[in-house]
Design a protein that fits this description.
- Helices cover 60% and strands 0% of the residues.
- The two termini are 24 Å apart.
- The protein has ten helices and no strands.
- The radius of gyration is 27 Å and the shape is elongated.
- The relative contact order is 0.13.
């Protein structure tokens, strides 16, 4: 294969620095996420004793922060350096990673739509498993409290799911003051309250179920999520479409900002001058197609 060089290969400085500025935001955001993740671990003493990561019975939200931060940092770095230096390898990597993430998101959306019942069961089991570790990790505790407050729910399927937690179960062997209760995030909220009553859920499940609704939320978080999603399906779909379009735009923009990038991706050639290169590329591929005898046998 022959490599061709043409004139006028320069990329607009305005475009180059626009892409650089766009990606440096993600680079810095990724670094901030990583810093926040390690700070959260240091506050919990995980950095001094890494075995704590495996001893937690529930999900540690810090992992999400670190993974998102790591991916964002790598994308931002590749985008910044690739745009600034017009580095074909980094531009390929950036576009490829964006495409891979987009493919994963699309696959997850399709699988979630097709396998709704297994997904519902998995979410319920996931929530129940994390109820067990509610008091073991402050970040997990805050996450569950936030979910229950925002969705006006309690437990996965209902308040009795808190029997799975050693502090809230109703067994006679439980010495905890929270025995047969629920976390404060399950309590009905009163906007007039200036101070959160963290003991509002104590002993509530030792009473008759017909009076629970006067003090706590009785709907589980999984049914609450199922009720919330149809009401907000257009918002969810709109957010997904906007994110997807941004990802596709970023991937194509990083390649198409310099025509050489596209030609290099298609041919593997280190092309620097690209005036008329698309026509030349089409001519090359046409010559190869019609000259290959194996295609017509």
């Amino acid at each position: 294969m022959h490599y061709y060089r043409y004139e006028n290969a320069e990329v607009s400085c305005c475009y180059k620095y626009l892409m650089f500025s766009y990606n440096i935001i993600f680079w810095l955001a990724g670094a901030a996420f990583i810093a926040i993740g390690f700070w959260a671990w240091s506050e919990k003493g995980v950095l001094l004793d890494l075995t704590q990561v495996t001893r937690i019975h529930g999900f540690d939200p810090v992992w999400v922060v670190l993974v998102v931060g790591g991916v964002t940092f790598i994308l931002g770095f590749a985008g910044c350096v690739g745009a600034l230096r017009e580095n074909i390898c980094l531009l390929k990597f950036f576009s490829g990673l964006i495409g891979f993430i987009f493919f994963l998101e699309l696959t997850a959306a399709v699988l979630a739509f097709v396998f709704q019942d297994p997904l519902r069961d998995w979410l319920s089991d996931f929530f129940l498993n994390n109820i067990k570790g509610y008091r073991e990790d402050i970040d997990l505790q805050n996450l569950i409290d936030s979910l229950q407050r925002l969705n006006n729910c309690c437990g996965a399927q209902g308040p009795n799911d808190w029997n799975r937690n050693v502090y809230f179960n109703c067994t006679t062997e439980n010495p905890s003051r929270e025995k047969c209760g629920v976390p404060f995030s399950c309590c009905l909220s009163d906007p007039a309250d200036m101070v959160v009553n963290t003991q509002c859920g104590y002993d509530i499940r030792s009473k008759k179920e017909n009076i629970w609704s006067s003090a706590i939320y009785t709907k589980g978080c999984i049914p609450a999520l199922e009720a919330w999603l149809p009401r907000n399906i257009y918002i969810v779909a709109g957010v997904f479409i906007v994110i997807s379009l941004l990802q596709v735009w970023c991937g194509l923009a990083m390649l198409c900002g310099n025509p050489c990038s596209v030609i290099s991706v298609l041919t593997g050639a280190a092309v620097k001058d690209c005036s008329g290169s698309i026509l030349r590329l089409v001519r090359q591929q046409s010559d190869w197609f019609f000259s290959s005898p194996s295609l017509f046998i």
